Structures are given as C-alpha cells and as structure tokens.
Amino acid sequence: MTTADHTCAATGRRPALDQLMSEHAGPLLTFVRTLVTDHHLAEDIVQETFIQAWQSGNRLPFGTIAIRDWLMTAARGLAVTSLREVAVGRETTEPEVDVAQPDHADAAVATAEAITLLRRLPDEHRAVLLHTYLAGRTTYQTARVLGVPVRTVRSRHHDALSTLRTSGARP
Questions:
Q1: For position 111, what pLDDT does the model report?
Q2: Cβ contacts of residue 82 below 8 Å, gap of 6+?
Q3: Rounded distance between C-alpha atoms, residue 60 and residue 66, angstroms
Q4: How big is the chain by its Cα radius of gyration, in Å?
Q5: What is the rounded end-to-end Cα distance, in angstroms, of the chain?
C-alpha cells in the first residue's frame, strides 16, 4: 500500500473518527479525570484512547453505549498503565518515604461501572435499588413510597441484583 493509498483509507474513516470524538471526548475526559489527578495526563490518555479506537477500525462495537463502554474500558487500561509508570518512576528517582497514599482510582472506576450498570436496568428495578441501598429504606418502606406491594418490591430487588450479577458487577 502506498502512502497515497494509506492517506485515502485514513481520510475515508476521518469523518467517523471526528463524530466519535465530538460525541465522546467530553464524557471520556471527565471519566479519566476521576482516575488521574493530572489534567494534561488525562488529555493524553483520552487522545491515546481515540488513537486505539481509530486503529481498531471495524472491530469497534455498534451503538453509542457499546462504543462508550469500549472507550471507557480502553481509557481505564491506559490510565492504570500510566499510574503504574508514574509510581515506578517515583520509586526509582525519589528517596524512600514510608507514607501511605490513598488510592481513589479503584473507587472511581467502581463508581463509573456501577452507574453504567444501573442505567441498563429497567426504571422499576433501578428505583427499588435506589430506595433500598442509597436511601436505606426497608422493603416495606420502599413498597409504601413506590405504591406497590411488598412482594413486588422483593421481586424487583431480586431481579435487579440477578441482572447486575450476570452483567459482570462485582459482588
């Protein structure tokens, strides 16, 4: 393949890449900023994520949610790699200091994954989980607030948790 052929092939995919970036760059940068504290590093990770997406070409999943999930997974992997590289660089160049630093990356990733999984649930199931877990209500209180029988709340609760478990949520 000549350089001209390669340029034509890349140019043909350019509008799709531009659309992908315009739709997902903002949310992706926000997500990466929850993983890394350096804004410039976050921008580099987002850029590298789109390069990987471009190189993946036809292997990208279809649908906005599937593509965003793919992008977030790729960005998370790049962020973890970057954080490891920074940690290794610090260990070799700085004097040894025994101070524990909190790691918020896992919590941020878990939160983003939980939000994604909750959005996939039907509204009725999501409402039951929000009332029971986030609001701390009992099954009876949730039934009263939602105006449905207690058995319905229990059933929706069970179905929602089953769905989350099969979707890959951690127990």
A1: 76
A2: 36, 41, 44, 45
A3: 9
A4: 21
A5: 50
Q: What are the angstrom distances between the C-alpha of 147 and each of 30, 125, 144, 150, 160?
A: 37, 14, 5, 9, 18
What residue has token string 């449905």? 148
Count Cβ atoms below 10 Å from residue 112 Cβ, excluding itself.
Answer: 16
Give the span between the Cα atoms of 102 and 100, in whole angstroms.
Answer: 7
pTM of the model: 0.43
DSSP letter, residue 147: T
Q: pLDDT band for 135, please (50, 70, 90 cuts).
A: confident
b/e sequence 154-164, b meaning 16+ C-beta within 10 Å: eebbeebbeeb
Stretch (H or E) spanning 15: helix 3-35
* C-alpha span between 118 and 127 (Å, rounded): 10
Mean pLDDT in residue range 122-134: 89
Q: Each residue of 65-121: pLDDT tens digit?
A: 678 888 888 889 998 888 888 777 654 445 555 666 667 777 777 777 877 888 888
CA distance linking residue 56 with residue 16, whole number of Å = 13
Could you say which DSSP state residue 59 is in?
Answer: G
